[in-house]
Design a protein that fits this description.
15 helices; 279 residues; 2 domains; mainly alpha
Length: 279
């Protein structure tokens, strides 16, 4: 039975709820950006001012870029997140295709294991992985930052849900044309899965770009620091916390994520729509 569209009052209430939620989400980011424009003396006053009486944009952003090698940290973030995403695509797509389209004994059990692993936070496995990497001599390297995240059970689940929507006739036609299963994955399924890949890419990049916990325990060299570790330089140093440069550094760090999301927003929504509903 089709539900009736909401009346004027319902539409107003719905938009009011959505606008309230959007305001709650945006306010911390707006406050962070406005704080990055203020001098230290105006940040710590008791009165509430949204706009600074004296703008300190050049001082704060200049200090954020020169006090620490911020550009190096941003490049490290790009290297780590890009390497993780490429490895996840290489692993996730064949696994998701096998769980969605191949018939073999134990497929249901394997998918249940994938669902079970979704419930385990990566912090729970941090100590065993740290000890393993220590014994292998991989700590304090790009490998330590990338390899633990090469397999993403969330990515396997998301791509499997998308592949379930692909008609079997398309795969059968590829087999008749002589393509093997790996050929079908990379030449047939991959081009159809671009919206789902973009949606997963947004989740993956945001999670690993903002990850503070794992880089903090496996990296000791400053030249390998990722953006969140770079932002921490401005917190509780010898002169106390410098909130202006701290907020400026945080704004610089999140700008690539905001730009990437705005650029891929349409594909992201398509990917979530196609992958989240059908089982």
């Amino acid at each position: 039975m089709r539900s009736r569209p909401p009346g004027p009052v319902g539409a107003i209430l719905r938009h009011a709820v959505l606008m309230t939620g959007a305001l709650l989400m945006i306010t911390p980011f707006a406050w962070m950006v406005l704080t990055s424009f203020k001098p230290q003396a105006e940040i710590l006053v008791a009165e509430l001012h949204f706009l600074p009486t004296r703008w300190a944009v050049v001082e704060n952003y200049g200090m954020a870029m020169t006090r620490v090698p911020m550009m190096r940290f941003l490049i490290n973030g790009v290297i780590v997140t890009a390497a993780i995403f490429v490895l996840q695509v290489l692993v996730n797509l064949p696994c998701a295709y096998a769980l969605a389209k191949l018939r073999f004994r134990g497929r249901g059990v394997l998918f249940a294991v994938v669902l079970l692993c979704l419930l385990i936070p990566h912090h729970a496995t941090a100590i065993p992985i740290y000890i393993l990497f220590h014994k292998m001599g991989l700590l304090d390297s790009y490998s330590a930052l990338v390899l633990p995240f090469a397999v993403s059970v969330f990515g396997i689940f998301l791509m499997r849900q998308f592949f379930m929507t692909v008609p079997n006739d398309l795969i059968d036609a590829a087999r008749i044309d002589g393509l093997g299963e790996f050929g079908i994955v990379w030449r047939i399924m991959l081009p159809t899965a671009v919206p789902a890949l973009i949606a997963f890419g947004i989740f993956s990049v945001v999670a690993h770009w903002n990850d503070y916990f794992w880089p903090l325990i496996v990296v000791g060299s400053e030249e390998l620091y990722t953006p969140p570790l770079g932002v921490a330089f401005f917190r509780l140093n010898d002169q106390g916390t410098e909130y202006g440069p701290l907020m400026a550094a945080a704004t610089i760090v999140i700008l690539p994520l905001v730009a990437a999301f705005l650029f891929a927003q349409r594909r992201f929504i398509e990917g979530i729509t196609f992958t989240g509903m059908k089982t």
